[in-house]
Amino acid sequence: MIALRRQRGAPLTLRLSVPFSLDNVSVAAAIRDDLGNVWPFAVTLDFAAGAVDLDAGVDARVLPAGRLYFDIRFLRSEMVVHSLTVLLVLLDDLAADSRALANRAALRARATLEGRVYLTVEGDVLDAVCARELGFDALAPRVLDAHPRLAALGPIYPEGVAILLPADITAAPAPARITLWGRA
User: Where do the domains of the chain lie?
Assistant: First the structure.
């Protein structure tokens, strides 16, 4: 049994040393749960160190905490020469979750003074958040300037990103009217 503690959404990579030569060997690895869901690993062989590097990639974000089964197969000439199944207990880092909750509490306290906090859901984009929460999307550049790290996340946000929305909204700016002959 292997017990791993990880921060929720953190990548999952493993390095295994093997007691035999990796010449002419291919490796397949995956994690599965009791319900039959399977998450494959990208496999890299390190011949010099006699090790196998396994990376769950972006799939690690969706790995559920709890009891999982780690399957690894060593193949030579398309035949399984060794297989291994290990019970993997994946634990979420509760301290990191507590820090995240404390950060959210601090943001909520700040929001009572300066504005309000919006926590994103998977797939949110800033323009849509501003349009839905503030009534119009023209404040998206202002919100982006106030949160420079939002740009690093890309245009589509993951779940749980805290965005402080400005409180000093008086009225929506008048949209520029465009006619066939220019601006009106």
Answer: 2-92, 95-166
